[in-house]
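Colleagues,

For the teaching module next term, I've prepared a clean inverse folding example: a structure given as tokens, and then the sequence designed for it. I'd like students to try predicting residues themselves before seeing the answer, so please don't circulate the second half yet.
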């Protein structure tokens, strides 16, 4: 496997299968100029269009990679189960919204962290993710 694969395994919640899925479905990380482009490609952000507090339509909800969306939601569920900081962050988020939105928000945080792990080839630091 390639070198960033081992770095992805340092993330709590990402095992061998999810790490391989993320690496193969992401491809070359340099094709994403910013972390928000990668997060959007992973379907971790919503596609709503809001103006003046009113919903004006939906964007292209099917745009992006459904396998990366699945992988990051699975990683968020495992991270919530096995990591204490992730569990407390998820509980705070779920108390303000609902559980599904909280899982998607946690998957977005993981996707953003994995972008920098792959790009910079540095191991995961949970202190940066949950401050």
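(Answer key — instructors only)
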């Amino acid at each position: 496997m390639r070198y960033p694969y081992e770095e992805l395994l340092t993330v709590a919640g990402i095992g061998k299968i999810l790490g391989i899925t993320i690496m193969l479905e992401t491809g070359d990380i340099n094709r994403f100029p910013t972390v928000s482009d990668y997060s959007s490609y992973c379907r971790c952000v919503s596609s709503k269009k809001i103006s003046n507090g009113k919903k004006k339509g939906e964007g292209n909800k099917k745009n992006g990679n459904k396998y990366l969306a699945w992988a990051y939601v699975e990683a968020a569920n495992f991270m919530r189960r096995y990591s204490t900081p992730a569990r407390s962050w998820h509980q705070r988020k779920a108390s303000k919204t609902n559980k599904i939105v909280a899982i998607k928000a946690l998957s977005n945080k993981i996707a953003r962290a994995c972008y920098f792990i792959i790009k910079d080839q540095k191991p995961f630091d949970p202190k940066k993710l949950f401050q």
